[in-house]
Every structure is written in C-alpha cells, then in structure tokens.
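Design request, tokens follow.
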C-alpha cells in the first residue's frame, strides 16, 4: 500500500504474467463473505515450501480467544484523525473485539458499517476495521514468511499482508514488500509488489496470480527474502521475483529489518466504490510464521 503505511495498487501495466495456485472451489459470486462466526479451516501442522536450512524463529498460531496477543501485535491508528492514505474510508480501531479478535484458531479482522463518533481520533469515517502491526515487537532481515489466510469478498474490500522498513526513512525509500493484496471487485486476483525509491511515482514493481477460492478457503501467502532477491508466492508456487540489481538503496532498500502488517481497508483508490450490503466482512488468519536461515 502506498503513502507511508498503506497497501499500494498494482496497475495492469506493471503486472507480470504468473502461474496460479489454489484449490478447485468456485469463487464467491454474490460478493458477500461467509457470515461472522463461521468455522475456519484448521491451520496445517507443517508449513509448505520452507527452504532447506531454515528454522522457525517467530510465529503466532492464534490459539485461545479474545484480543490478539499484545506481546506480538500492536495497532496502527496514526491516520484516523486525518484520514487514511489512498482515499481509504475506514477507521482503524484498537483493542476492540468487534474489529479484531482471536477465535476458533484464527485471527479475525472484521470491517463494519458503523461510525465511532465518540472516539477521540474519529475522522468522520463511516466504516471500522483493524490494522495490526509487529512494529516495536518484532522485525526481521531476510527469511521465509508465511501467512495462512482466507480473504473477504465484497465490492469495496482491500485486505493486505505486507511489510515496511523499521527505519525513519520516508516511504518508499524505506522499502515496502506487499506479500498479498486483493480487492473484493476482483476476488480471485492476488497481487504481490515491491516499492522502492526507484519506483516512486509508479504503481511499483509486481506480479499477479489467480486463486479461484481465495474467499472461501485458506491459502499460504509466502515471501522468500534473501540478500540477492525476494520472491512472492501462494501455496509454494512463486509468481513474482524481484532481484537485487546491485545499484544501491534506491532500488534495493531490502537489507535492513522490516515489520509485518495485517489490515483490511475499505474503499480507496484500488478497491473503489463500496457496497454497504456486504458488511460485516472479514479477513481470517490461521497462522503467521517466520523462518530464517540457520
């Protein structure tokens, strides 16, 4: 997402051809996610596609119930009062079970059609959601990252799984890695993108794949990040690789720590108009796992 802290659209002209992954179920056709509280698929016991020689260094399996683990996650609310980037329409709530909770073995991020007018940082938004980050809790330089998630469907949704550099360098020079972006109006289209100083003013450098049942089944959204390249894929099928061109930080800022972000945006430049009949709508995350070379 662009403008400091949001997931960025990948325009058609910047997409690369990709091979798809995923199950055989048909995509949702009514634009509405499964109802709140629907059972989730259990996470697999073993991650797929972990490179040889890598070991698990950080994970959240979302056991228990209630708010997400405060030792691993915090909430990004910094632009609530002023309005979020990319013309997004949501208010990101902190520590509010209606918008983020652990239940039935998954993290559930729920977007709702409501206005939290009593919130001190309320910015006239008509929707609520949540944006969880590991900033200040955990960050990594290089590794294999896997987020097992089921995505929402519905016109106006914009879920993202992504990373940003921990330094104070302005975006996009700090480097952004979008492991997964999807919008409800194109529910089977999954994009992965990188943003650097060299891509400033563009939609970034990225690729796309098709997942027919992204809204009805869980899939493993994956990043393999090393000093010479990074590769983005789904269910162990890579569809976009960005190689270090060896030309300095303008094109490769990915040599320092980055933190993870999970969010469900509403509206904005990529998701466009919102259909209010879809709410409440959810993104469910069965696990987040980080492996590093030993």
């Amino acid at each position: 997402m662009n403008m400091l802290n949001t997931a960025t659209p990948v325009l058609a002209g910047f997409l690369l051809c990709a091979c798809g992954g995923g199950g055989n179920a048909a995509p949702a056709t009514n634009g509405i996610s499964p109802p709140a509280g629907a059972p989730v698929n259990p996470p697999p016991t073993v991650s797929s596609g972990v490179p040889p020689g890598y070991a698990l260094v950080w994970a959240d399996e979302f056991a228990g119930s209630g708010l997400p683990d405060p030792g691993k996650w915090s909430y990004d609310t910094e632009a609530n009062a002023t309005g979020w980037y990319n013309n997004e329409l949501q208010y990101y709530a902190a520590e509010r079970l209606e918008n983020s909770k652990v239940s039935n073995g998954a993290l559930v991020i729920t977007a709702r059609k409501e206005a939290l007018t009593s919130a001190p940082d309320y910015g006239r938004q008509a929707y609520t959601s949540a944006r969880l980050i590991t900033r200040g809790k955990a960050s990594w330089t290089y590794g294999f990252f896997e987020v097992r998630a089921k995505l929402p469907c519905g016109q106006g949704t914009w879920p993202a799984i992504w990373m940003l550099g921990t330094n104070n360098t302005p975006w996009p020079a700090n480097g952004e890695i979008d492991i997964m972006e999807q919008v409800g109006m194109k529910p089977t289209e999954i994009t992965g993108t990188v943003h650097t100083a060299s891509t400033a003013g563009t939609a970034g450098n990225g690729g796309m794949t098709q997942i027919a049942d992204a809204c009805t089944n869980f899939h493993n959204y994956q990043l393999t990040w090393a000093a010479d390249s990074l590769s983005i894929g789904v269910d162990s099928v890579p569809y976009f690789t960005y190689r270090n061109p060896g030309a300095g930080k303008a094109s490769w800022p990915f040599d320092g720590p980055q933190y993870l972000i999970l969010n469900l945006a509403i509206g904005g430049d990529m998701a466009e108009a919102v259909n209010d009949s879809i709410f409440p709508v959810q993104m469910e995350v069965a696990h987040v796992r980080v492996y590093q070379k030993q």
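Comment from the thread starter after seeing the answer: thanks! The first helix runs from residue 268 to 271.
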